[in-house]
Amino acid sequence: MDNTINTSINVIGSIPDYQFIYDVLRQLSLNASKDDIYESVINRNIYNIRTVESRIRFLSGVKSAFWQFKNNDHETLIRSLYKSSGLENTKRFSLFWMLGINNTLFENITTKAFIKAYRSGRVQIKNNEIVAYLNHFRETNDVVKAWADSTIEKVASKYLTFLKKIDFVKGRQKKEFKYIQVDDTSIIFFIYLLMAIAPDQHDILKNRYIDFIFIEKNDLPVVLKRAKYTDFFNMQTTGKNLIIDLKYNFGELINVISSRA
After folding, report:
1. CA 13, CA 158: separation in Å to the nearest integer?
2. What mean pLDDT is reported for the chain?
3. What pTM was estimated for this model as a whole?
4. Bridge pairing between strands 174-177 and 124-126
């Protein structure tokens, strides 16, 4: 049974101030002790989260969603990002990417419902569209099959709340799409992220998360041919594939990017 199909998005979507997430991830990246992290976000309550129980739940949710790694290279890359100052946009996108990597349900909703709707040219996405997808998924998945309708509704709502908090959508009841444009630094980071989590899959067009970059597969080879990207990796393409070879190791990337900013 896939234990990454769960309701953890409800916890992440309920965090009122996302600086809480960035703070926890920075402390984790710097190897802060459990006691130090606990003192900062639980005891001192610098983010004014009402109850101790909620603070503990949010801390656990952040670790589950954003601090789980496929291998050492994956951890090195994420750790180096959150050690760095700046790169706020890349950190924002990384929340979206890491949640997709660490939570299969979030990945499925994103690829089967959200990105499809975004690319359709429509201006908005409604909560009931996410609910409809989850109900369809419930027919074939034993985990989701056991959920009450109220659980389905909450997951759909918190999914869209998360997207609103990372500035992908706007609005209250009806969520309007914002224009999602991944900046140059974040594109480079994303390519390295794909190679970190699937080191033997040099054809990134076959990577299961490739749509998370919001660039059509047919356009990606043209985009990545630009000199500002080829400084960071070599690429070969026949149109049907896109072979990537990195020029830096995963511990070097952020320092190189920062030195060129």
Report:
1. 5
2. 94
3. 0.96
4. antiparallel
